[in-house]
Structure prediction request, 168 residues.
Amino acid sequence: MQLHGLIHSFPNHIKLFIASFVIVLSIGYITGLLFISHANSTTPDGLEENYLGNEKDQNAKVMRFKKGEREMLTTLHTHILSISFIFFFLGGLLALTSLPKKIKAFLMIEPFLSILLTFGGIYLMWKGILWMKYVVMISGSVMTVVFIISSAIVLLQLMKKEDNNNKM
Prediction:
C-alpha cells in the first residue's frame, strides 16, 4: 500500500476532519505548555523546584514540597502514555504526507526519544540526579518544536491538491 502523499487524495470532508483533529490537538498541547509556564517550570531551577520542592528557601513566595513517589509515578505514567498517543496519531498523519522520507521518519520517531528523555529525566532528577533538569529542558523543547512543525506540515499538506504526475 502506498502511503506517501495519500493525504492529498482524501475527500474534503476527511481533510476537514483531520484538520479539526490537529487544531484541537494543538490547543490541548498548548494548554499543557501554559500549565508548565503557570507552574514556573520553564527554567531548569523552576523545574527542579516543581518536583523537589523549595521548603529550604526562606524567601520563597510560594512554598512547594517534594512530590511523593505515588504522585511522581502517576504523573509519569499518564504523561508518557498520553503524549505517546499524541505523537502516534500525529506520526500516522505525517506518514501520509509527501515530505521527503528521511524528514518524515525523523519527525515521526524523534518525539518518542524526547518522551523517554523528558520523563525519564524528570524521574532521575526527582531521584537526585540534578543535572537531568537540563536534559529535560532540552528534550522537552525539542519535543515541542517537533510537535509544532509536524502539526503545521499536516495542516499545510491537507491544503495541497493531489498531483497525479508526481505519484511515487
